[in-house]
Amino acid sequence: MLGRSPGRTLGLTLALVSAFAFGGSGTAAKPLIEAGLSPLHVVWLRVTGAAVVLLPLAYRHRDAVRRRPGLLIGFGLLAVAGVQACYFAAISRIPVGVALLIEYLGPPLLIGYVRFVQRRPISRGAAIGAGVAVAGLACVVEVWNGLSFDALGVLFALGAACCQVGYFVLADAGSRGERPVDPIAVSAYGLLIGSIVLTALTRPWEADWGRLGGDVVMNGHSLPALIPAAWMVLVATVLAYLTGVVAVQHLSPPVAGVVANLEAVVATMLAWVLLGEHLGLPQMAGGLLVLAGAFAAQASKPAAPAGKDLPAAAPPPAGAAGADTVPAGATALGERLARAAEAQTPRTREQGRERR
After folding, report:
1. Residue 310's pLDDT band (boundaries 50, 70, 90)?
2. Which of 19, 39, 42, 293 fits a 20 to 30 Å CA distance from 125?
3. Which of 137, 134, 70, 143 shows the shortest CA–CA distance to 99?
4. Backbone angles phi, psi at 222, to 5 degrees
């Protein structure tokens, strides 16, 4: 699937780095939320801090604003502000691992977008993968107990899944068209636009930022609040977005999305070790189903339309002769010309005799 070209190898490496970096975001943010900062203020800190770090890169690629403004605005609204706000709101109500697993319904949602919005056929494997992921979600949230994990938290996580679809679609769109945009510019301006949107929504001046000067508790241990805050900004945002967007353009959205599923595994493991969040057996089994379904959905290619599943015949080599090397269309045309010539032969001969 990934091939052996240098570009594919680089894309795979960057996708792995991005998945591991993103995976630690919830674990770093939850102690800040438990210390008294609201989820939206934490996500504002994360996005705005990253935008400030990337300001020099945004200035260097300022021509991107003129070339693809719609792409940058969409990436900022969905892939930055939407994903982060919904995800942080979700982890304030449900465990980090569960929030990530629900968020990774994004791949089956992407399959549904292709099938019902773009009206393109999908393969049977993609449909099966989406169904497996939904079954896994039912186990994760324990529907037989009446959504005991908190229904609002689940809805926030599903919102993050929808916005995640925009992340992969827009990251890939930046490299296409007549005016491609550098992936670094997509990340830098996406974070800057997301920061502006979140500033208007969250009113960060109302937060008690003095809590960052104190300590937070992580699984019973005390540590300075600036440590998880710095990790959240520099590693889980700056590094994660830069490497993730570049990886999508090297690998394609489906392959990059499959690798990005490791984020859910990393987040669950970190939450287990650092936050003491233990999942029951049904939820762990459901998580594996969600990951398996997401993998199957993203690894499957859309089915080819009827009549277009055969490769086009290669043109004959220059100077080649013989019926085996003549394209089918040329053969049919030759047959029609031959029949026309035969029909005209008697009249042509008669006219020749009259001239003589």
Report:
1. very low
2. 19
3. 137
4. -95, 140
Q: 156, 41 in Cβ contact below 8 A? A: no
Note whether 22 and 243 are within 8 A (CB).
no
DSSP secondary structure code for residue 36 in this structure: T
Note whether 97 and 30 are within 8 A (CB): no
Task: Please identify which residue in the block is written with the tokens 């233990």.
Answer: 278
Q: Above 60 in pLDDT, residue 320?
A: no
Place of tokens 């037989």: 144
Give the residue carrying structure tokens 């570009």: 7
* Pairwise CA distance, residues 241 & 18, whole Å: 7
276-298 pLDDT tens trace: 777 678 778 877 887 777 676 55
315, 316, 322, 326, 329 from 319: Cα distances, Å = 12, 8, 10, 11, 18
- Stronger pLDDT, 319 or 133, i.e. the higher one: 133
The span from the CA of 234 to the CA of 75, in Å, is 19
Residue 270 · residue 24 · CB < 8 Å: yes
pTM over 0.85: no
